[in-house]
Specification:
Immunoglobulin-like; Serine Threonine Protein Phosphatase 5, Tetratricopeptide repeat; three-stranded mixed sheet; alpha+beta; four-stranded antiparallel sheet
Length: about 525
């Protein structure tokens, strides 16, 4: 009970200090440590990386993007924050999902558009996301997170780097923390006020009821993780259907459905739907190391829709598995020609060019990919190129970027990073301590914290005349090999001493080491 009182007192104090703000949609006071200006800046900064990491903009039929933006702006204009810099984008991603970043940046996947029947259902999706942005749900979530874990910074957007660029990871692609896990109250609030916005904009709010019914059905029928992101961020339930139905009954009857227009606008997606089904089968075949089967599916996809760059990138990966680098390179180049604004195409071709010795061209591709979306894979290979050219500091910078990734690439980057730093900073990874042993002689304890076996360890022991002056210096050879985490004691021959306190006169430092073979 005391902790509860303390929490209430803290919340009150923060409100008094200006940490509380009014929810623009509900009018209620809520905790917020992030200003409206910061919120807009966060959304603007992370919008492009979010789009890049989740398939890129849908470019096959630009009219679909214009149509979705038209509906979105119509709803945003009647929202409680109409002045936000609203943006609406259609992503070329078959996973049924939609999300909102702080400050009014909203995206919907082609996979979700295919699940909808009319414009009122589209309006229900967009209005729901508009409420998340208008009600500052992301800012509230981040503020609560900051209180729980002081010093935590806003998470950045991270691309998937396993498998086949942004393709094989479609079903796992998520985004930053503010996109993914709204509270139950936030979700219900977005349902309720989203229907209000729909009604204000002239749409039939029953579209929102049908949308939730569709989500419940998909949740019951789903196989594997294809819908996991949608249902993690927007969990469906019969309760939400019932609440939406009650809210629809309270709003004015009627309103636009625009089924014919909606079906007309998505006709290209409908026509190409078999191509995207073939693409998913091709991804599965590639993950099963069956590139010939993958190419069969991709041939089918390309026959239906030859302009989708994702199909061509996947063809490149298939040819790569077949050790046909010439065809792989042609496919990656075609992908870039179809969509020159997606990081994964340049990344795939850049890695291929590096591995086939075309280092100058590889650098161009990898730098372009890194510019569009910094990824551990691009950072690692740019580090390799810098190291090969003798640019140690540049290589270290790239390796440090890649080393934070919990992937095979991250592990390789950490190895390269340690390998380079061992030459100049061995004591950073192999700390040492001088002490007087039981026999009265000075000894040095060392421990390998590098994460890899090391060899040729050199140690320097100095006797200090005072805090600033060295009286004597001795160099010692350490063990021939030291495994990760292993400790070793090196004898110095200095002594004997009557007291363990004599070790205070000495300083030890590892001055040489290299990765063991």
């Amino acid at each position: 009970m005391i902790s509860l009182f303390r929490a209430i007192a803290l919340a009150c104090m923060l409100c008094l200090l200006g940490a509380c703000a009014v929810n623009p949609v509900t009018g209620e006071r809520e905790l917020s440590l992030i200003s409206a200006q910061q919120e807009v800046a966060i959304g603007a900064q992370n919008y492009r990386p979010s789009l890049q990491s989740q398939g890129g903009r849908y470019t096959i039929d630009p009219e679909i993007g214009l149509y979705v933006a038209e509906v979105g702006h119509k709803l945003a204009a009647v929202s409680d924050r109409a002045a936000l810099p609203w943006e609406f984008t259609v992503l070329n991603n078959p996973v049924p999902n939609a999300w909102a970043l702080p400050g009014g940046k909203i995206a919907i996947n082609t996979g979700l558009l295919l699940q909808l029947e009319d414009e009122s259902q589209l309006a229900a999706v967009l209005a729901h996301e508009i409420v998340h942005a208008a009600a500052r749900h992301s800012a509230s979530q981040m503020s609560r997170g900051t209180l729980i874990n002081l010093g935590t910074q806003v998470a950045g957007i991270a691309a998937q780097n396993a498998g086949y660029g942004s393709l094989a990871g479609f079903a796992q692609l998520g985004g930053a923390a503010w996109m993914a896990r709204y509270s139950r109250e936030d979700e219900l609030e977005s349902d309720t006020y989203g229907m209000v916005y729909m009604s204000r904009a002239g749409y039939d709010p029953r579209g929102a009821v049908e949308l939730q019914e569709t989500f419940v059905r998909l949740n019951e029928d789903r196989q594997g993780d294809f819908f996991s992101n949608l249902f993690a961020s927007h969990p469906p339930s019969p309760e939400r259907v019932a609440r939406n139905r009650e809210q629809a009954a309270r709003l004015p009857a009627g309103g636009a459905r625009n089924r014919e227009r909606y079906q007309r606008e998505i006709r290209q997606l409908k026509k190409d739907e078999p191509a995207y089904e073939a693409m998913q089968k091709a991804v599965a075949a590639l993950n099963d190391q069956d590139p010939k089967l993958a190419l069969e599916y991709l041939d089918r996809a390309v026959r239906i829709q030859p302009d989708d760059s994702h199909f061509w990138e996947l063809r490149g990966h298939a040819w790569n598995q077949l050790d046909n680098s010439a065809n792989a390179g042609k496919a990656f180049t075609t992908a870039i020609g179809k969509n020159p604004d997606l990081f994964s195409h340049y990344l795939a071709r850049g890695v291929l060019r590096y591995k086939t010795g075309k280092t100058t061209a590889a650098r161009v591709d990898l730098e372009k990919s890194h510019q569009l979306l910094p990824t551990p894979t691009a950072s690692f290979y740019l580090g390799e190129l810098a190291a090969d050219a003798g640019n140690r500091d540049e290589a270290l910078g790239y390796y440090r970027q890649a080393a934070g990734s919990d992937t095979q690439v991250g592990e390789r980057a950490r190895f390269r990073l340690v390998s380079l730093e061992l030459a100049s900073e061995p004591d950073k990874y192999i700390p040492s301590r001088a002490f007087v042993g039981d026999n009265g002689y000075l000894q040095v304890l060392i421990q390998n914290n590098s994460g890899m076996p090391v060899a040729d360890i050199g140690i320097q022991v100095v006797k200090m005349q005072n805090a600033f002056t060295v009286a004597e210096s001795l160099r010692l050879r350490g063990p021939a090999r030291l495994e990760p985490g292993q400790q070793a004691i090196v004898r110095t021959g200095i002594g004997p001493f009557d007291s363990a306190e004599a070790a205070g006169q000495f300083r030890s430092r590892v001055i040489g080491a290299r990765p063991a073979e």
